Each structure stands twice: as structure tokens, then as C-alpha cells.
Amino acid sequence: MHRTRYPEADDAIVLADGEPVGRLLVDRTNGRIFLVDLTLLPKARGKGIGTRLVRDLLVEAEFDGLPLRLSVPRGSRALGLLRRVGLEVVTASELTVGMAFSPASPLVSATG
Known about the structure:
Elements: H1 2-5, E1 10-16, E2 19-27, E3 33-40, H2 49-64, E4 68-73, H3 78-84, E5 88-92, E6 96-101
Parallel strand pairs: 3-4
Antiparallel strand pairs: 1-2, 2-3, 4-6, 5-6
């Protein structure tokens, strides 16, 4: 389903200690970074792996001067994590919550 909607998204296997523990799917088109899917196996949850991955995307968004967007199911345990790392709720429906981070201003390059 995600491949059809986000054909140019980067699809990666998340590794911990060399073992696959999840999937990360990120679309970097249309002038934004969109976290399509971050799924971790139950054995990998609660160990800071998801936090590190989301923080890495925040650093990328800040560096590139691009907004980071995502959507999670309403009631998801991830909402607390996402708020703690700096994402804000921007939309909400009966089923999902849209969250975003927008850098204050694009970073100036060393040449510009």
C-alpha cells in the first residue's frame, strides 16, 4: 500500500546489534520529509530505537530547512514520544493525528 502512494520513498530495514528489528519508510519529495512508516518488532520497542530514528529525521529536517510531517493512529503510544522530541499536532481526525516539525529557518550554507 505505501509503495503505491509513495513510490519514491526510501525503504530501510532497522537493525539493532546487526539483527533486523523494524522498518523505516521515508518520503523526501514535494519539499518536505514525510515519515510514512516506522515499525519496530515488539522485542525492539522501549529501547530508544524509535526515538533515535525520529531525532535523526529532525536533525535532517533542520539541516535541510524542510518540514518533517507524519501521521499516527489516534491513541498511538508513539504520540508521547513524538511530542517529547519536538513534533506538534497540526491536524486530527477520528482515526489519525497529523504531526509536524518546521525548522525556524533554513540553515545557511558555508558558501552562501
